[in-house]
Amino acid sequence: MESLNGQELISRRSNKDVSLLELRDRLAEFAAVRGWDKHHSPRNLLLALVGEVGELSEIFQWKGEVERGLPNWSSSDKEHLEEELSDVLLYLVQLADVCGLDLGQAALSKLVKNARKYPVVKP
After folding, report:
1. 1 pLDDT more than 50
2. Do 37 and 31 form a contact (C-beta atoms < 8 A)?
3. Among 83, 81, 97, which residue's Cα sits nearest to residue 23?
4. CA separation for the pair 27, 53 (Å, rounded)
5. Per-residue pLDDT tens over the stretch 2-48
6. Secondary structure of residue 120 in the 3-state scheme
7. pLDDT tens digits, one per residue of 51-95
8. Are 13 and 23 spatial neighbours (Cβ–Cβ below 8 Å)?
9. Alpha carbons 28 and 36: distance in angstroms, whole number
10. What confidence score (pLDDT) does residue 46 get?
11. How big is the chain by its Cα radius of gyration, in Å?
12. C-alpha distances in angstroms, 52 versus 47, 57, 86, 93, 95?
């Protein structure tokens, strides 16, 4: 299996619309070529995910309410947020994969359940 570097991972796709399946496949390949997949048990991935959520939370911890679009944030603060959000997403995708779950389908099913549970109430 070839060893992929960061630029090779990015350059394979220039389109911004990335599917969960593509992320899943790239993550599996990324871990496999590095021999990390043997450490990716559901428990280990969950604990890593929780750690990343903690890092994400730290970004907002003392900021109070933040406006949509983050108009008062510096580009470096936004980049840091992107990195932490990405870490959370990547671990979540990996966790679903090693558990044998279709995360995209599960999310769509959950939206349907939520729509039934919380119907639109018109005034």
Report:
1. no
2. yes
3. 97
4. 19
5. 455 655 555 555 557 899 999 999 999 999 999 999 999 999 999 99
6. coil
7. 999 999 999 999 999 999 999 999 999 999 999 999 999 999 999
8. no
9. 9
10. 98
11. 18
12. 9, 9, 9, 13, 13
